[in-house]
Amino acid sequence: MPAPIRLRELIRTIRTARTQAEEREMIQKECAAIRSSFREEDNTYRCRNVAKLLYMHMLGYPAHFGQLECLKLIASQKFTDKRIGYLGAMLLLDERQDVHLLMTNCIKNDLNHSTQFVQGLALCTLGCMGSSEMCRDLAGEVEKLLKTSNSYLRKKAALCAVHVIRKVPELMEMFLPATKNLLNEKNHGVLHTSVVLLTEMCERSPDMPAHFRKLVPQLVRILKNLIMSGYSPEHDVSGISDPFLQVRILRLLRILGRNDDDSSEAMNDILAQVATNTETSKNVGNAILYETVLTIMDIKSESGLRVLAINILGRFLLNNDKNIRYVALTSLLKTVRTDHNTVQRHRSTIVDCLKDLDVSIKRRAMELSFALVNGNNIRGMMKELLYFLDSCEPEFKADCASGIFLAAEKYAPSKRWHIDTIMRVLTTAGSYVRDDAVPNLIQLITNSVEMHAYTVQRLYKAILGDYSQQPLVQVAAWCIGEYGDLLVSGQCEEEGPIQVTEDEVLDILESVLISNMSTSVTRGYALTAIMKLSTRFTCTVNRIKKVVSIYGSSIDVELQQRAVEYNALFKKYDHMRSALLERMPVMEKVTTNGPTEIVQTNGETEPAPLETKPPPSGPQPTSQANDLLDLLGGNDITPVIPTAPTSKPSSAGGELLDLLGDINLTGAPAAAPAPASVPQISQPPFLLDGLSSQPLFNDIAAGIPSITAYSKNGLKIEFTFERSNTNPSVTVITIQASNSTELDMTDFVFQAAVPKTFQLQLLSPSSSIVPAFNTGTITQVIKVLNPQKQQLRMRIKLTYNHKGSAMQDLAEVNNFPPQSWQ
């Protein structure tokens, strides 16, 4: 049989192929020749054939039929054969294939070989693709080589030990004695791999940092020698001595100094030297400075050192390299919580980054700008952010608008400024704002009694001839309906009043109704506004009746229903119309979970103002309750009665009260309800309907201890209890769900079931997102009727999304305190 072509000739031949089909034909032809050679057990050219096969594998062609030939080369006594055999094993084999176990004995023999290069090949292969079984069998040999005096073998053995620890963490203690002398080595390769091994051990075991903290002075000494040493051609990179080793040492110091005062004190001086002596003109120096900054911010460093670190990040923002600017912004986001005033010094540079062409830098700069907003700089920062909102790409507008809303709500210097700012956002990016922006602005306007005339005049001007920004039109329609009389009377004192007639106001609202840009929701706002004006205007009531009657036959079901109900008010209930359509009272602002929450971005955390989310408006789906009952099993479970989202009449009078309004958890008298502008809708009877709207709960709740009903995977559910004054059989349980992990839990749903002798109602939760780092809680109220005073038992089901996975769990709660049910 003729000798096969050499690898170099094969490469040259393949490169001459003009088409992919021609290349594929050459590969198939050569693979056929290699297979024939393998079948004939040709030992002479096996090494050459496997080398060609590896090249084909690199091109993406199948080469699995050469796996056993690699094992034969490994068993050969020739170094050239072993080299190709081990390379093939690393490329063609992995721990998912049982074939790799066949070479365990060969690797063991080669680890004890007399030639260091053969030992090095075996260490490289084991460190690259060794399975947990192989690591357990060969860990002893690796540990012996870790103690050898040969620096070539020690560095390879250290890296192999890293792989062994990753695969079999319980073998970590085997390598502890060998790590004692590793840092005494002069060879930089051994030092580098030793630091990698120590870092891996500290990250894998929480006990290791305390064991290795005694090495901090030695690490500091090595790092100082690297900084102070002169030019060394062997280790010099762009004028810096071995930057790779410096970075690794800084990372290890960061782990060892975390939460330890003594270690942090020992490394303060060297970190200051690195930060001041490192050259920043080259990217190598910037990499070392970045690691230094991370170490300073992570350990218990001095305040002056932290200021130095943040100033380094500030210099990074001026760098021409986009990657360095992005890294600086990300790092400042992490530090702004602890060093807010220091980061403020770089505010102008951060704001300039909003004008960067790179979208990633823009987003980081926007997030950091919102984190820097406070009561002192709110006007200037909002001016910059509104300019950014006006010119940024569409994908930024929603987040930017939400951030402006939240910052304005928290730090607004005056109500007029607050209203002007939100109206500017709605005018600029109204189509991108969140759904809760409209009700939040309406609530703000309602509560700013002295600004009603000014606001309705501004909104009237804003929508003249432009209905493209639907949220703005909705707010304007609501305000015109509420305060149309102030608009017509021209009572605005803040700016020059405008002369508007009743017909002109109705013309605007009718234009909104017939505009092609108006959504169904916007038309509903406009029709309701026109109806409200029937009690505020005097000369146009007949026109309003005509408009309302026209939409009684609208093809939009929602609009038709509104029009029919309003027509009934004009005809059958005209004596109630003025009372039902009177002006809305001041609304109470409900906030949850504190002023701030943690926003998660790319695995890092930064503070952002809390986004107050309204509770879900609809009832809990019946199918979810039924699914819960199916999973819980048994026939002694009573179903969950869902909460009705609409209001129901109170037994005390004709007011409309929400279900949640029936129960005042603070024990204070219930607030007077708002007059309704729609007819009352009857509700099915509920077990607690007979309770009056008087204060229901007494101070006995203070004596009922709370319990932890569930605690697993970072999610904690706590129950607190209250008892009714008017009906002792009613227990109200308030659940609080908190999340101690680093990522938010989304789409959170809590369900519960009780035995048939009880009745249970779940009210709507405060949110569907459980914030990370215990920065907020979800609250939900459960009402339980226990007429027979039996011991309370409950089964719960939890569903949520976390780290991209859907989670679900069931639990049983039997440890209710006796005071909650006796």
Descriptors for this entry?
822 residues; alpha+beta; six-stranded mixed sheet; four-stranded antiparallel sheet; 16 strands; 11% strand
Strand order of the largest sheet: 6-13-14-11-10-9
Shape: elongated
- Count of DSSP E strands? 16
Largest β-sheet summary: 6 strands, mixed
- What amount of the residues lies in strands? 5-15%
Work out the radius of gyration. Answer: 36 Å
Question: Low-confidence parts lasting 5 or more residues at pLDDT below 50?
Answer: 591-701
- Please give the alpha-carbon distance between the first and last residues: 96 Å
InterPro entries: Adaptor_Complx_Large_Subunit, AP1_complex_gsu, ARM-like, ARM-type_fold, Clathrin/coatomer_adapt-like_N, Clathrin_a/b/g-adaptin_app_Ig, Clathrin_app_Ig-like_sf, GAE_dom
Region (Disordered): 597-628
Protein name: AP-1 complex subunit gamma-1
Membrane topology: Peripheral membrane protein
Describe this structure in words.
It is a single chain. By secondary structure, the protein is of the alpha+beta class. 51% of the residues lie in helices and 11% in strands. The chain is built from 33 helices and 16 strands. α11 runs parallel beside α14 (243-257), α27 (470-489) packs antiparallel against α28 and α31 (557-571) packs across α32 (574-580). The longest helix has 20 residues, at 20-39. The model is unreliable at 591-701 (pLDDT under 50).
